[in-house]
Fold these 2 entries.
Entry 1:
Amino acid sequence: MGKFELTDYNFYSSRLDMELITSIVDALNVLLEEDKKEEQPLFLKVKDDFIMNIARKVVQEKKKTFLIGITGESASGKTVFVDNTIDAVVREKKEGIYTVIRCDDYYKDTSDQLKAAGSYEALFKTGFSFDTPDAINLELMKKHLVALKNLETVVSPRYDFVTTESYPDGEEKKPAKVILTEGLYVLNECMRDIMDVKVYVYTPIEVIKERWYKRAVTRGKVGEAADLQFKDVNETAQRYIRPTYQIADCIINGMVDKEYIKVITDKILKKLSEICSNV
C-alpha cells in the first residue's frame, strides 16, 4: 500500500467538497423551481452565482460567522421576514445560533429637536427627516456588526419612536453562527462591504403605504405629521433605498404569507441537513 500523502487528503477533501456543493446547488434549485409555481413566490429574483456561493459557504466556511443583510423600504416586510425565518430555523432559543441587529435601534437621539419644534408637524416643516442615512448611527451599527463577526459581545442602543430618545442600555447581543441585520440602510454604501449575503425585500408601494400609515399611529404620528413624513419616506426611498435593489443577491417578496416563509425556510434547512448528514 502506498504512503498516504497530505496532498492526497487535500485532493480527496476538495473532490468531496465539490460533490457536496453540487448536491446542495441541485437541491436548492429544485426548491426555487417549486417556489416559482406559488401564487406568491418568496424568491422574486436570484443572482446567477447566489446559490453556488451559498453552497460553497455552507461547505467550506462552516466555522465562519455568516452575516446576512436584509433591506427594503419602510414597511416593506423586513422584520416579518427576519422574525419568521428565525421561527423556522430555531425551534428553541439557544445561544450561538443567531443574533439579530436592527437598524431601528440605531436611530440618533433627536428629542431636543422635537421638543424645540413643539410637534412632529412643526419639526417636519423645518425640513427635518427621519428617513435619510444621517438619521441613523450607521458608524456604530457597523462597528457592532464587525465586533460580532470577531466573536465579541456588544450592547445595541434602545430607541423610543414616540419621544425620539436613544438610550445606550439596550439589548446585549452575543456572537453567533448567523448574524441577521435588517433595516433601511444595511446595504448602504458604507455597510454593504461586510455583508456575506445581501437581501432586498420588495413590496408594491400601495401596500407599503397602507402598512406604513397603520404603523405610524403606534409611533405617535397621525394627520398632517403622518402625511408629511410619508412624503419624505417615498422621496428618500427613491434616492437611498431602491437603488440597492440592483446590488442585492436575491429579491424577496414582501407580500408572502408569514406561514409560507416558515414552510420554505424549513424545507431549505431540512434539505441542507439531509445532504450534509450523508457525507
Entry 2:
Amino acid sequence: MDELLAAMAAELELRHDYLASEPIRTRYFGGGTPSLCSPTALRVLLDRAAELFDCSAIEETTLEANPDDLSLEYLVALREVGFDRLSIGVQSFDDDCLRLMNRRHTAAQALAAIRNAHLAGFENITADLIFGVPNFGGDSLRHSLDCMLDAGVQHISAYHLTIEPETTFGRRVARGTFAPVEETVSEEEFMLVHETLCAAGYEHYEVSNYALSGFRARHNTAYWHGEKYLGIGPAAHSFDGNERHWNIASVARYLAGESAEYEQLSERDRFNEYLMTRLRTIEGIDLCEVAQLFGKTRADRLLGEVEIVGRDGALQRRGSRLHILPERFLVSDRVIADLFEV
C-alpha cells in the first residue's frame, strides 16, 4: 500500500498541469477500497494535491468506504484531515443478500457505520443500494429501503445488479447455477425504489441517484456535465475536453511506470457522449446548447427524431429541452442509443 500511495503522489506531480491551472472544486477517493488507508496516508495525498493545484474553493471531498472500516475513531480522523462526504457501500440491509453478494459486512455493521458517521460530524452521506438481486426483491428490498430512510442519509445511489462474464456471478450463470431476474421483475423493483424514495422527499436526478435538496453529488455531476477531470492511480480515467486518458489497471504494471493509454475524441464521439451523459440526468439536453456546441444540423435532427424515439413517452420535450422521465430511466440506455449519431 505504501508503494502504491507513493506512486500516486508521484503521478500527481507528473500531471500537475493536466487541468491547465483550473481551480479544483471536488476531490473523490474511490474506485477501490480507500477506507483501508489510514487518515494520515490520505492526508498526504490531499496535501500534495493542494500544493500542486488550486484547491482554495473546494466544495466537496468524498471517501468511498466499506461499512466495517468505519469506526468512530477512524471517522473523526477523516473529518480532521478534510473529508466532508462519505460514500458507504451498504448494498443491502438483508444479511442473506449480503452473503450472496460476498460482502464482508453485516446489516448491523452498516447501520453502525452510518450512526458513527453522524456522530463524527458528517452531514453529507451517500449510501449504495443494490436491487435486481434474485430472491431479494419484495419485502427484502422494502426493508432495505426503510432502513436506508431511517438511517438519515442525504443521498442514495440505487444500482441494478449487473452480471459481468469474468466474475463469480458470471461464472455461476455460465454453469447454470444462477439466473438474473426477469425484465418484469427489474421494472417492478426499479419502480419500488423510485416511488419509495421520491415519496420520502428524494429527487431522482440521475438514472441511479437520489438526493435530498442540496445534496446532489457534485463530483459525479461534473462527469455528467462533461467537465474536465483528472484521475490518479491504477485504472483511473481522465478527460481534458478532447482526449480521454486511462491508466493501466494492473497495480504491478502501474508501479512499474507503464504509460497511460488515450484516445482522441472526434466531434461525433463528443456529441454522442454529450447525449449519453446529459440524458442520464433529469435536466436532459438543451437543443440551443446542442446547436451552439455541435451545429444546428445536429440539433434539428434530434428535434426531428423526438416523435419517433419518444413514441412510448419515455423521452419528453419541454421547450428547447429534451429529457427522459425519471420513472422511465430504466430504459434510458435504449432511448439514448436511438439518438446516437452512427
